[in-house]
Amino acid sequence: MPPKPIIIPEIHGHRGCRGLRPENTLAGFMHALELGVDALELDVVISADEQVVVSHEPWLSGAFCRDAAGKRIDPTRERLHNLFQLPYAAIRRCDCGSIGNPSFPRQVPETAYKPLLQEVITKGNDYAQRLGRPLPLFSIEIKCSPAGDGKFHPSPEHFLELVLAVVHATDIAGQTTLLSFDKRVLQVAHNQISSLPLSLLVEDDQPLAKHLSELGFVPAAYGPEHALVDEKLVAEVHACRMRLIPWTVNEPVEMQRLIALGVDGITTDYPDLLVHLLAH
User: Fold this and answer.
1) How many domains does the structure of the chain reveal?
2) Which of 29, 72, 185, 237 might form a disulfide with 156, Cβ 3.0–4.6 angstroms?
3) What is the pLDDT of residues 67-121, one digit of tens each?
4) Record's PANTHER family (predicted)?
């Protein structure tokens, strides 16, 4: 039997390149493109005036954000800085880059605001063209949950409507995969626009078959926490004709393990490490 061919995985820059630049910022996304990522992974939330904002939390993080007056955010009160209750003009004045993230010592701090999804798409595509590289893929994670409905975000149906309006306005449907841990929003997306690739994110050890049964359809991709990936899961995912893109992989040894197993992509805070590994 011939040896199993090695799949060269796509490089997905997690929140841009969180280990190197402030997360979910233009600086992070542009640096990720300079490094040579295939896909920009990012998170979206909704402002009070229904703008699609790139942010992991639907509030200002106490770990690395300042409010519009330049004051540090109290971590114990960060959820009071609810982006769903703030117009984007107010969000735009907040700095979430100059403090730096203490969990990522290689991160280079710089003043940075939370951009709109449309701005990231437009500038990302323009910058890739200037670099002479293919247009990037956009892995857009919709951050919602039943507990957050009406409090930190709109209903899954309306959330999806707002995100799709940006995707269509920027003409990037062919570059886009929608991701979510929330099966509800993926179900709505599957029913409304079956041609758009969807990815189910998971962080528990529930069997793949149970996740797919709860979802009600087979998505284009499966995104487990990287420690959940073994040879059995790779075989099961590929037998379902799904792509397997684990997250968030920051150690070269783990990157090598996953490459050997045959994953289709790797989401990492340190795309420079994965670029170097794949080049040697």
Assistant:
1) 1
2) 185
3) 999 999 999 999 999 999 999 999 999 999 999 999 999 999 999 999 999 999 9
4) GLYCEROPHOSPHODIESTER PHOSPHODIESTERASE, GLYCEROPHOSPHORYL DIESTER PHOSPHODIESTERASE
